[in-house]
Amino acid sequence: MKNVTDSFVSLGYWPFAGSFGFNTDILATNPINLTVVLGVLIFFGKGVLSDLLDNRKQRILNTIRNSEELRGGAIEQLEKARARLRKVEMEANEFRVNGYSEIEREKLNLINSTYKTLEQLENYKNETIHFEQQSAINEVRQQVFQQALEGALGTLTSCLNNELHLRTISANIGMFGTMKEIID
User: Which is a Pfam family this sequence falls into (predicted)?
Assistant: First the structure.
């Protein structure tokens, strides 16, 4: 510091050249100017520079703190989203499994009901065939009976005369009389 004050004191001892001009002696002029400028800046700018640096430091610390809080919130939201995703995936798998089993169950129910319907139709068909067979058999019986009756009546009327007719009636009355005596 003594050199700096000596340079200011020594300014008063320099002789004036008598005219204005440039001092081209770099070693004599620049260190003095730099010393003066730096001294003024340090003396007056020390507080301002310190305040600026403190403000900048506080802003950086606040930004870091906010970033950490946001990071923590983002991590928390990410974990919640992952938990929801796992839950939704489990539910989707459950729906998928239940859906497949429900489809299989419905398929089996449909197959079973189709088999039952086919069995009922087969039974109805068999009953209808049996009914039609019985109707045909009854109709044939009636026709055969009718033809047999007509044939018997035709034979009886052609073979029977009055005398044979009276003997048959007498024989039948006699049989009834014998039967009545046996029963009594």
Answer: ATP-synt_B
CA distances from 139 to 68, 130, 142, 147 (A): 103, 14, 5, 12
Mean pLDDT of 131-155: 88
Comparing 96 with 138, which gets the higher pLDDT? 138
Annotate the chain with DSSP letters as a single string: -HHHHHHHHHHTTSPP-SS------HHHHHHHHHHHHHHHHHHHHHHHHHHHHHHHHHHHHHHHHHHHHHHHHHHHHHHHHHHHHHHHHHHHHHHHHHHHHHHHHHHHHHHHHHHHHHHHHHHHHHHHHHHHHHHHHHHHHHHHHHHHHHHHHHHHHHH--HHHHHHHHHHHHHHHHHHHHHH-
- The structure tokens 């047999």 sit at 148
CA distances from 150 to 15, 137, 142, 162, 165 (A): 181, 19, 12, 20, 18
* CA distances from residue 147 to 133, 152, 182 in whole angstroms, order as listed: 21, 8, 37
**Given this model, what pLDDT does residue 26 score?**
64
The pTM (predicted TM-score) of the whole model is 0.36
- For 27, 157, 180, the CA distances from 171, given in Å and listed in that order, are 184, 18, 14
